[in-house]
Structures are given as C-alpha cells and as structure tokens.
Recover the amino acids of this structure.
C-alpha cells in the first residue's frame, strides 16, 4: 500500500529539480519569517543539495533570520573535505549573512558519543523545525538512519557505529527529531535509487519511511520511475 501523505514530484531535468527545491526553500523561509520571525532549516549533504545551496545564495533573503542545522555528520575533523558542515560553509554560508551564532554544526570531531550528546543539548533548545531536507540512499537510508541499525529515539541526536557507508562512525538526528518539523523535502536523484523508491511506494519499511511528520513529506525525483 502506498504511504499516505507522501507527495511525489517527478522532474524532467536535474536543473528543474534543483530550481524546484530552491523555490520551495525560499517559500518556506519567507512564510516562516512572516509567521514566527525566524526560519529553522535542517540541511542535507550530497551533490544535489550542494548545487541547490549554490542557487540559494543568490536570492535576496533575510538571512539574519535563518537558523541552520544538519541532519547528520561524519565523525571526521571539522575541516575534513567530507564534512557536510564544511560543504555548506563553502557553497552557501560564506556568501550570506547568517549570524555565526545561528549556525549549529554537529560537533562530530568530538566523536560519535560526545558529539551526539553535545548536539542533543543544542537541539533541546531549538524549536520545531520549519523545513528538513533529506536524501535517499540506494539502500533506503536517510540522514544516517540505516537499515537494520536500531536508533535510540529518546535523544535528539544519536551516535552511529558500524555504518555500512563509510566512515563507520557518524552522528544523526533521531527519527523523532526529524519528524518534529513543519515540512520535509526528500531529494531523490539517479537511477540507482529506483529500488529504494519502489520499496517506499509499495509501503515497505525502509528507513526513509520513518520520516512521517503530521504534514507529510514531499519527494522531489529525477531519473527514477514512479510506478
């Protein structure tokens, strides 16, 4: 059975998808700032989000009202080229006026346990997110929620060990914290994601299906078929 309140949108080109995601972020930000005076967004890593962030930096946003969080992070040094936080800084934050105090990077350089505990405290002071951006792995994982890897949902951020995708040690937001949001957008690109999409649409339990906030999710797709 196809999951309820999951809205699938298929794009004709990767450029159209990137612009579609960018437009959705801008709309969400503007609405949140009008309603609540600030915009809290959880960013995803990966090549497609990277391109979206490049587009986003050229929009005339009220960047001083933005609060930046991350869905997951690799336990590497803060300046490592594979850190999501470094990528976001390089392609977006160094070009826009988000105050440094409103950029909440996961301190994964502390290691999975200490870093998760520290970030959980940061998130405990954060309100409900306005928007969460997520990707989808070929195995159906999202953030660093992997198949057959139980996650402790009693915490906002949790350590990940023995990840099937290197590096083995990571930190991820828990299922419950990712669901504490007004809006979720999944960005799904590439034919390699087809099997995961098929399982999702058939109602099979993959990690991505754990993310089911009250308002549902929007799945932006390119190079997959929606059978």
């Amino acid at each position: 059975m196809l999951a309820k309140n999951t809205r699938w949108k298929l794009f004709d080109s990767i450029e159209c998808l990137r612009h579609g995601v960018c437009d959705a972020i801008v709309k969400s930000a503007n609405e949140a700032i009008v309603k609540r005076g600030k915009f809290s967004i959880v960013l995803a890593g990966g090549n497609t989000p990277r391109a979206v962030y490049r587009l986003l930096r050229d929009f005339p946003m009220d960047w001083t009202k933005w609060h930046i969080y991350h869905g997951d992070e690799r336990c590497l040094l803060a300046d490592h080229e594979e850190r999501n936080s470094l990528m976001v800084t390089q392609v977006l934050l160094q070009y826009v006026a988000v105050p440094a105090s409103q950029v909440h990077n996961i301190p994964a350089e502390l290691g999975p346990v200490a870093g998760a505990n520290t970030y959980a405290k940061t998130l405990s002071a954060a309100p409900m997110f306005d928007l969460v951006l997520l990707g989808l792995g070929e195995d159906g994982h999202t953030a660093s929620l992997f198949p057959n890897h139980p996650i402790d949902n009693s915490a906002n951020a949790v350590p990940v060990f023995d990840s099937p995708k290197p590096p083995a040690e990571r930190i991820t937001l828990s299922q419950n914290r990712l669901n504490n949001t007004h809006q979720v957008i999944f960005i799904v690109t590439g034919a390699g994601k087809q099997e995961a999409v098929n399982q999702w649409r058939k109602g099979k339990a993959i990690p991505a299906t754990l993310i089911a906030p009250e308002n549902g999710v929007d799945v932006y797709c390119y190079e997959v078929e929606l059978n």
